[in-house]
Design brief:
globular, 8 strands, binds flavin-adenine dinucleotide, alpha/beta
Length: about 325
């Protein structure tokens, strides 16, 4: 019951200001977002890769309001890629990006006076073309150092635009990945379309507050849908990325992979930094590719609130630390 309330709170500017400014918030935030700058995150990357883990790096900050902020987001990723180049990690460190941060939700520059879009962006609302223009140099720079980019999935209204950008990028950079969310009714169809040779697809349960008209609401239904989607990906020709901390899903993924004739390395597990960290190491030791989604940056509010919403115990932990420090 608490999850949807926290997700609704994640959209509140007032709460954002209060929570972001409270000094006691910081240690709790650090559990999930271990740095604010690229200099703070580089030692984390070095440490994780030296322990056999792989990474996907997320610069947090999806709630942008101007094209200048979208360009700054692009530049933050380009700065990260410069640092990764020096580390020479190849695909062991890739990037995850949210297109909203690249301008996807901004008003389209192609919008006419009567409010209608024109030109190639006409099929999509807002800053579809702007997001594509900003993300392309990041994908190019990643490819130049031998790594890849995965497009995160945000709320359901953004997905047609995300998949269109994914398809466009894949024409030049076929290794560009994308994310599908098992809680959405549409996702089995998306999985069938994406389970093709050369395609990299992360499947997750889904972290946004979605209406019952588009998404399963009950955990049991979402878990069943996840397994159906995962089976499609494992039986297909693409490269599945299993994004879940759920021990049952991890077990079932191994079984589905075995039945589909996939060896460790023909798919990978992905988990979030700060969640079930011993499991990251255990799976890597078993010979699996284990990629840790590692977020950093100053604008961590939305990312942090989604982590609280996923597990109400995190909220209690957070509240306890606030109360005991006052
Ligand atoms: C690598 C990765 C990338 C992701 N990318 C996206 C994306 O692009 N779009 C999107 O909508 N969602 C994304 N998510 C989030 C995802 O949708 C889920 O909200 C999240 O993974 C929780 O679901 P679960 O599969 O871990 O299972 P759950 O059933 O929620 O959790 C299983 C167990 O994992 C542990 N756990 C789960 N979440 C937490 C937490 N926050 N804190 C502490 N313990 C926890 C608990 O022990 C819990 O019992 C991503 C998740 C991962 C792992």
């Amino acid at each position: 019951m608490l999850g949807p309330v926290i997700l609704a709170a994640s959209r509140s500017d007032r709460l954002r200001r209060v929570i972001s400014a409270a000094p006691v918030t910081k240690p709790v935030v650090n559990r999930f977002i271990p740095g604010e700058s690229v200099d703070q995150i580089v030692p984390i990357i070095v440490d994780a890769t030296s322990r056999g883990l792989e990474l996907t790096m997320d610069v947090v900050g999806e709630d942008i309001t101007t094209p200048g902020q979208a360009a700054a987001a692009r530049d933050a990723y380009l700065e990260l890629i410069e640092h990764l180049k020096a580390l020479d990690l190849g695909t062991r460190a890739e990037m995850s990006v949210k297109l909203s941060m690249f301008g996807q939700a901004l008003p389209s520059p192609a919008t006419t006076l009567n409010g209608e879009a024109s030109g190639p962006a006409a099929a999509f609302q807002g800053g579809h073309e702007l997001a594509l223009a900003n993300v392309r140099p990041v994908v190019e720079a990643a490819a130049a150092i031998g790594t890849t980019v995965t497009l995160d999935a945000e709320d359901h209204t953004t997905l047609d635009s995300m998949f269109a950008i994914h398809e466009e990028l894949r024409k030049d950079f076929p290794q560009t990945g994308c994310v599908i969310q098992a809680y959405l009714f549409r996702t089995e169809d998306d999985a069938r379309r994406l389970a093709a040779a050369g395609s990299r697809v992360r499947v997750v349960k889904g972290a946004y507050k979605e209406p019952a008209s588009v998404a399963y609401q009950e955990k049991a239904e979402i878990d069943k849908a996840y397994i159906r989607v995962l089976r499609i990906l494992m039986e297909g020709d693409g490269y599945p990325m299993v994004g879940s901390h759920d021990p049952r899903i991890v077990e079932i993924a191994q079984e589905l992979a075995r039945r589909a004739g996939r060896k460790p390395g023909d798919f990978e597990f992905q988990m979030l930094y700060g969640i079930r960290s011993e499991e990251h190491v255990r799976l890597a030791r078993e010979g699996h590719r284990m990629r840790v989604y590692t977020a950093y940056g100053t604008d961590w509010y939305g990312y942090f609130m989604r982590r609280l919403a996923e597990k109400p115990a995190n909220l209690l932990f957070f509240l306890r630390s606030v109360l005991t420090k006052n």
